[in-house]
Amino acid sequence: MVDLERDDRLKEECGVLGVYSPNQEAARIGFFGLFALQHRGQESAGLAVSDGTKVRLRRGMGLVNQVFNEADLGDLPGHIACGHTRYSTTGASEIRNAQPIFCQSQVGEIAIAHNGNLINTRELREEMEADGEHFDSSSDSEILARIFVLNMHLGPEAAVAEVMRRAKGAYSVTVLTPRMLIGFRDPTGIRPLVVGKLGEDGYMIASETCAFHPVGGTPIQELEPGEMVIIDHNGMRLACGAKSERKAMCLFEFIYFARPDSAMYGTSLYSARERMGAELASEHKVEADIVVPVPDSGIPAALGYSAASGIPFREGMVKSRYIHRTFIAPDQRMRELGVRMKLTALEDHLRGKRVILVDDSIVRGTTTKQIVKMMFESGATEVHVRITAPPIKFPCFYGIDMASKGELAAAKMSIEELGKEIGATTLGYLSIEGAVKAVGKTKDQFCLACFSGDYPIPVPNNLSKSAFDEPPEFGEIATISHGQFKLIEM
């Protein structure tokens, strides 16, 4: 399977969802909610649904509308749902690592969906294996799920608190039991999680606010770091699972990951990205004829740059709406044409023009280099590249697949050297201060690790991106440990 969206740009993480809808079909709501979160993960999707007694699961590889059809949704009756869209950051891209994780426990069937990465995965795995646990997947999410399930007999508050005590790293999680929906967020709050209303007596939990509107939901509040929400027939209640020592929301959610029609930290993502473009215009002035975005993520920033600089905004390329995933493997020639398969230059707009090209980030630099080349081949006389993310110099260990440090272009080259490498007339990055200012918060409220190397959750010295490689294969037969946990292969 080949994903034509994969290049040197940042990969999406995962999207999680929870639905509690006493008078509606949770599976159908969950389907459209996951569809709205598709941008956060395109490798697999899944839904677990409870009718109050039995939990049923459907998951598969591919996009949401490839995994589910009308018959599938009809086979998932019930009023409570837990959903997931996945981009793998730990564990291979295969069905056994698709989520939600579905298991048996002493208190009934449970499904768990997780967005983020644990940084003490191997330590926890070794401890739990020494205690007799046997693992059935290579995902860190199974470790988190096992800790939760082994403590659920003490109650949901105690189970979540134990996860937060033992699991180190980033996690936003939704949990489904036969009669209950639970959501919680790690004590640092790196990954987002929002709770809201669904009709008069329903509730919903999602990674982003954009998932609420298509299903008639209304977001109420973002869960605080270390906070949990528990929803059942008595309504919704909030509780603290662990004290938050430092709040550090991922800044890349604001720059790139989250949909522009979402809101975080009380801020519209679209407006924040426009302000990032305006800050870029202030920090990196240049004489040019047009401002051109790299679609789609560069559009708000390009509009902001244009408004602040007075240089006209003009589309310089069109993105194909139909290049997502394909099961037809391209040959080498087609792989080399990957960018051109997704982007077509508008030569009439570019010919003879000095172009300011606005994009969200540069990781390895190969895609940006191809786009710059395409601009010049289409007649641009100058291409000034402007990037709304500060230079990425350090790897992420909290759920973003952005390569190892040795593969990061800005870690290997100066800005001037990188500008020459990608063929740009000039290259300018938005500063950390400019990006934070555009969101309207202060630096101490964000995770800036990939820019500064300051990891808000201390990373072990021996941990590298290779620590997230696939562990040895495990048996295909699901096992029961301590009589409490059984992973169900579906």
Describe the 3D structure:
28% of the residues lie in helices and 25% in strands. The protein has 17 helices and 27 strands. Strands 14-13-9-8-7-6-27-26 form an 8-stranded antiparallel sheet, covered by helices on one side. A 7-stranded antiparallel sheet has the order 4-3-5-2-11-10-12. α13 (366-377) links the parallel β22 and β23. α5 (140-151) crosses α6 (156-166), α8 (269-283) packs across α9 and α8 (269-283) runs antiparallel to α16. Residues 1-9 and 465-490 have low confidence and may be disordered.
Sheet with most strands: strand arrangement: 14-13-9-8-7-6-27-26
Strand content: 15-25%
CATH top level class name of the largest domain: Alpha Beta
Query: Which stretches of 5+ consecutive residues score pLDDT under 50?
Result: 1-9, 465-490
Beta-strand segment tally: 27
In the CATH hierarchy, the architecture of the largest domain is: 4-Layer Sandwich
What is the 3D form?
globular
Radius of gyration from the alpha-carbon trace, in angstroms:
23 Å
How far apart, in Å, are the first and last alpha carbons?
A: 21 Å
The third-level CATH topology of the largest domain is Glutamine Phosphoribosylpyrophosphate, subunit 1, domain 1
CATH superfamily of the largest domain: Aminohydrolase, N-terminal nucleophile (Ntn) domain
Tell me the major beta sheet: 8 strands, antiparallel
Percent range for helical residues? 25-40%
- Mean of all residue-level pLDDT scores: 87
What is the domain tally? 2
Structural class: alpha+beta
**Helical stretch count?**
17
